[in-house]
Amino acid sequence: MQEEVNEKKGISFDTARLKDTLLNFIVPLVAFAVIAGLFMLIILPTMKSLPNLKQELTQKEALSEILYTKNNVLDRLVDFKSIVSENSTLVDRVLVSEEEPLPLQDQVYKMAIDAGLEVTKLSYSSGGGGKTEAGAYKIVGISIGIDGNYDELVKFFELVENAARFVQIDGFRFNLGKDNQSISTDMRVDAPYLFVASQAVTDDPIELDIASDDFIKFVNRLKELNFYIFSEPVEIPVGILVEGTEEETEGTLEEENPVIPPEGAEQPVENPSELPFEPVTP
Amino acid sequence: MSQSINLIPQQEKQEQQKTAIVKASTVFSIVLLVIVAGVSAYLFFEARKYQTKLGQVNDEIEDHRSKINAKKQVEIDARNLDKKYSVLEELFKNRIHYSVLLREFVLRTPAGVTINQFDVRNKSISLSGYATSYISVADFINSLLGKSGASASSSLGLEELFTAVKLNSVSLDSGNKEVKYSIAIDYDPSKLNFY
Question: Poorest-confidence range of A190-199, B142-151, B156-165?
Answer without folding.
Answer: B142-151
